[in-house]
Structure formats: C-alpha cells, structure tokens
Amino acid sequence: MEVPEVRYARSGDVRIAYQAFGTGAVDLVYGRTAISQLELVWDEPSVAGFFRELSTAARVILWDKRGVGLSDRAVGTPTLEDRMDDVRAVMDDVKSRRAVIFGATDTAAMALLFAATYPERTLGLMLIEPTVRGAWAADFPFAPRPEEVEESIRLSDAEWGSPAHIGQLLAAYAPSRASDPSFKRWFGRVVRFGSSPSAAASLARMNLQIDVRAALSAVHVPTLVMKCPGDRSVREESSDYVATHVAGAHLVSIPGRDHFFWANPEARAASLKAQRAFLASLPSAPLDEDRVLKTVVFADIVDSTRLASRLGDHGWKELLGSFLAVSRSEAVRFRGQLVKTTGDGFLATFEGPTRAVRFAQSVQHEAGRRGLGLRAGIHTGECLVTENDVVGIAVHLASRICGSAGEGEVVTSRTVRDLSVGSGVRFGDRGAQEFKGLEGTWETFVVAAP
Known about the structure:
- There is one protein chain.
- By secondary structure, the chain is of the alpha/beta class.
- The chain has 2 domains: 7-281, 3-Layer(aba) Sandwich (Rossmann fold); 291-447, Alpha-Beta Plaits.
- It has helices at 45-54, 80-93, 106-117, 146-158, 163-173, 181-194, 197-208, 236-245, 265-281, 304-333, 353-369, 393-404, 414-418, and strands at residues 7-11, 14-21, 26-31, 58-63, 99-104, 122-128, 223-227, 250-253, 291-301, 336-341, 345-350, 374-385, 390-391, 410-413, 427-433, 442-447.
- The strands form 2 sheets. It has an 8-stranded mixed β-sheet with strand order 1-2-4-3-5-6-7-8, sandwiched between helices. Strands 9, 10, 11, 12, 13, 14, 15 and 16 form an 8-stranded mixed β-sheet that branches.
- α8 links the parallel β7 and β8.
- The N and C termini lie far apart (51 Å).
- 48% of the residues are buried.
C-alpha cells in the first residue's frame, strides 16, 4: 500500500489534516495521543504495518488534531467542542455518514463526548487507556497530580526534542524500544515535527482540566476499552472506570509494558485482534438516537408581571416578541435551537456547553439593551429528544438552576464548568444547592462577565 495522500478538511477557520485509506466496509476515525504527524507514521515499519493490517477491516481515517502535526498550529487552546467539530468536519469531507471513533488517552475524552452528543454519527467507540479526568481528585485518585504534570512540563521544555528528552519519553511510553536507535531517531522526528514545546505544555495543562465523567452514562453505542496493565505511564484503573460506567462496554487487556501498543509485536497483535473482532461485531441496524447529550439553557425575565403591567398588553407583547426573535436568531448563531417559549422566557438546547454559555451571555446583553432583567440556568446532561420538545432530568435541573439565579446572572452546573475546558470562560463557585424534586445536592457556578 502506498503512503496515503494528506488532505485537509475545513473546521470553521481551521484546517484539519487527515488521510483516508483501507478496504473495510466500516469507517474508523482514528484519533491518536497528544503529539502526532501524519506523514511520519509511515516511516516506522511497526506503525505502518499496524495501520496496513487495520485497513483490511475498516476504511481508516487518520487525523492530526488542531495545533499539532500537519493541521493548523496557531489555534490557541482547543475546547472539547472544537475537537468534536474537527471530527465532524473530517467525516463530512470523506463523506462518512457514520463511523467508529477511536480515542487514545486524552483524545478518548473527546470521543466519549462525541458518541454521547452525536449518536447518529457514531457506530461505536474504541478506546485505549482513556483519560476521563486529567487531574487527581479524592474520588478519582488514578490521575496525576498537577504538580507532577508541571514538573514533567518543566523538564520537557528544557530539552525538547533532544536525545535525552526522547530517551525519557521512550522509557515511559515504549520501554521495549527505548534502546532501538532507529526507533529513537524516528520518534524524535515525530516529537519535533509534531509539536512545539509551548504547544505541548499548553495541551498538557488543558488535559489536567478534563473531566467528562458526567457524560459517560449518556454513551449508548457499542464500546471497546483496551488497557495495558503493564504500562506504568497510565493507571489501568482509569480504563476500568470507563468500562464500568459506559453501559455494555467490553474491556480487553493488552500484554506488555508499552503505552505505544503498536511498538511491541505481542501487544500489536493482541490489539489488532481485539479491534478487528469489535469492528466485525457491530450491529447493522440503527441504534437508539433519541437519547443524546445536550446542553440545556433556561432563561426568564425577572419581574415580568410588573413590567407588563406598566407597559400594557400591546407594549409588552411587542417588547417580548422583539426579545424572543433576537434570542431565536442568537441560538442559531451559536448552533443551537430555541425549542420553546415559556411565557416570559424560553428553553434552548446546544451541542456543547461553551456555545450555550456564550449564547446566554449574548441574550443577557440583548435583554439589557431592551431594559429587561434576565436570568439563565445551564446544565449538560442526557435528554430524550422528541419531535418538538426535549425532556429529562437535565431539563428539570437547568430550570431549577435558572430559578436560583439572580437578575443578570448566568448560573451553571458543575458539569457545564467541567466540559468547558479551554474555552476561557471564567466560573465562580456558587456552592452546593438542593433543588425541589431532585435528589441530592448540586454544585453550581456563576459565569463571570465576558
């Protein structure tokens, strides 16, 4: 097989580099770890051989994430929503209606969100050593502590791409090949051509903020989780956690000590066997597409009765109609939908939390221009989508959060904050609250002014 042609898909203003190759009937969108470089894949026989074998079971679509490799570099810190957009852009460019999404470590967080948000585009998930939370927490002690990551960044920044740096990386990620001079030279080129030290540091710090655990219950597609218990760079408990919290997920152990599973013949063979079997087992019938991950925005006008009484029926109708019309337009601008009005407010849904927050800030501004006091509540969760409505606990929670907000405030759940990694949105802790009809306490946050 010849080296596949590199092509580019447009995702907004960003170009995403990809290659498509293979003879299989299933499309497989393959997202690799932090640093990649499409063309250099084919210079290392063990990697090239792995993808050539995999391409007999699927049409493989390799892509470089924005900010690394051959994709556009000067893109700032990407959000998880940005990366989902990039996957959709690549799929659209190769005319793939539905695909299996592969995610390794940090890319797995995006893959999980993609499957929950776009089940109609997702045949299944294949994950290896997935990162669902980037930093240590008392309820997730399997992730590194921030100070450990900062020390790693400091050491890498000082000797980026040098023989010593590459040796340190291989000792952690591919110990079976660490003494192979040819492999070391190749991997050094991948690191130097794949990313700058500043971009890698920015990505590592962003990954610390990842926490997609709340979205796992919304994943309803066939899922394969692979882990390597001998890998010392990633705790296997993270894979166990995903396999436990994604309904029906299948967990497979890969032998060896290499994080780069394709670097070791035994691990490469075991992973290929698991992936080929998974691809062959996928159902041909459409899956349930009514349950999706949505970000729900509830907003209402504060003290609307008093205002309507002062303006009169005609004046109030005109003012409210003007505000709802611009709100509907703004929802479309932020790629959402104003689902319904609620007398003096509305319910809107979005495919991601950052766009929902930006929308809420925008309509707050529009309300202020019209002399209206608006409050908004936002939550991301699984919803049941009907023909003209959206229902579920997530909708009720967004409504309750809205009710807790003051005039001029946008208040969100913790899930919204956690999924807004890299967006630049600033959140202030509002504290845990109890809401009528909902069990437990809920952490809430107020969005700072833009």
